Amino acid sequence: MPRRRLILIATAVALGGSSAGLWAVPAHAAAPVKDGWWTVTNTGFGVAPPAPPQVPSGGLYIENGFTGPTAISALTFQVGAGDEVGSITLKVAGNPVITSPPVACPITPAGQNYKPAQGGPWTDVPAYDCTKSQVTGTVSSNSTTVTFAAGPLLENGTVAAVIKAGGTADRVAFDQPGPDTLQVTPAGEPSGGATGAPAGTPADQGASSPVGTGDNGSFGSAAPAAPSSPLSLVPAAPAAGTPPAIAPGVPSGVSPTGSPGTGSPSGSAPTARQRTQLSRSTGSGSSVRKDLAEAIGIAAVLAALVAYTEGFGLLGGRIDRPSARQRPARASSEA
C-alpha cells in the first residue's frame, strides 16, 4: 500500500478518535470541585462502617428510612461570573430502589465549608435549606441517570447542593461524578454552546440554494437560459454547460441566411450532438428518394414478368411477327 495512503488512513483514524472523545464529553461541562456522602451508621467514633456493596469507589449514595434520610450526598461546582448552568446529571450504579425521584436542595453558606467524605459521620452532613429551593430530579426511563436543574441552585458563581432520596425506603448509588456532570454555557455565548451556528454565519440565514444543473447534467446556473426566438437569425446565448442549438438542415458553420461562420459560436467545430441533429434532419430527404427508387424498380420487375407471360420480351416466350401472320397461303396459289 502506498505510503501516502497509509498516512491518510492514520490521520482519519486519529480524527475519528478525537471526534468520539468530543461527543463523549460536552464542549462546556464541569466536574465538582468537591463531593461526598454521609450515613447515620457512621457515629463518628473513628471506625467507619463498610459502604453498601452497590456503591462504587469515589461514588455517592443516598437512602431514606421510615423516619427520614439515613444517607445524604453533596456536590459543589464553581462557574465563571455570568456563566449559565444547565443541569446536573448523575449516573446510577447497581440496582436502585426508586419509588419517588430524588431531590436536591441548596447548601447554606455556612455548610459550603464541608469536607469531602465517603461514608462520613452523620454529624458532618453539610447544612442545607430545602425551604429556600427544592429541585425534583428526573429519572431516565431505564433508571440509569438522574438529572437536576442547576439554575435554582446557583448563587454567586457556586452550585452547591445536597442530594436526598425521594421515597420512603428508597436507596440509590451513583458513579463517581465526572467532568460532564454539570452543563455550563460561558458568558456571552448563546445557549447550546457548540451546537449553535458557525462563527460568521447570520442566525437568520437560511439554507443555501442548490446549484442548478443544465440539460446535459453539468453544474451551471440555477436560472434557465431565455429561449431563443425561432425567427431570430442570431442564436441566443446558451446556458452554461449546454451546447447551442442548430437549425435543422443547416450545415455546421453556416447561418440560415447562407453566411458562413455564424452556425456555431466563434466558428468552432460542431459537437457530437449537433452532428446527430444535422444527420437526422438531412437524412429525411435521402430516405424519400430511396423509397421512390425502390418502388420504381419493383414496378419494372412486375411489368417484365407480365410481358414474359404474354410471350413478349427478350428473356423468353414467343415473339409473333405481324408479316408472318398476314402472308397468303401458298396452297391456294399453286392450285
Look at the structure and give the mean pLDDT.
73
Structural class: alpha+beta
Q: What is the helix fraction of residues, given as a range?
A: 10-25%
- The total of beta strands comes to 14
| Uncertain residue segments | 18-26, 193-235, 246-267, 321-326, 331-335
The separation of the N and C termini measures: 122 Å
C-alpha geometry = rod-shaped
Order of helices and strands: HEEEEEEEEEEEEEEHHH
Please tell me how large the radius of gyration is: 49 Å
Largest sheet: 14 strands, mixed
Structure annotation, total helices = 4
Report strand %.
15-25%
Fold topology:
Layout: H1 3-24, E1 29-30, E2 34-39, E3 60-65, E4 68-78, E5 84-97, E6 103-106, E7 118-121, E8 135-136, E9 138-139, E10 145-149, E11 154-155, E12 158-164, E13 171-174, E14 182-185, H2 272-309, H3 322-326, H4 330-334
Parallel strand pairs: 2-7
Antiparallel strand pairs: 1-14, 2-4, 3-4, 3-13, 4-12, 5-10, 5-13, 5-14, 6-8, 6-12, 9-10, 11-12
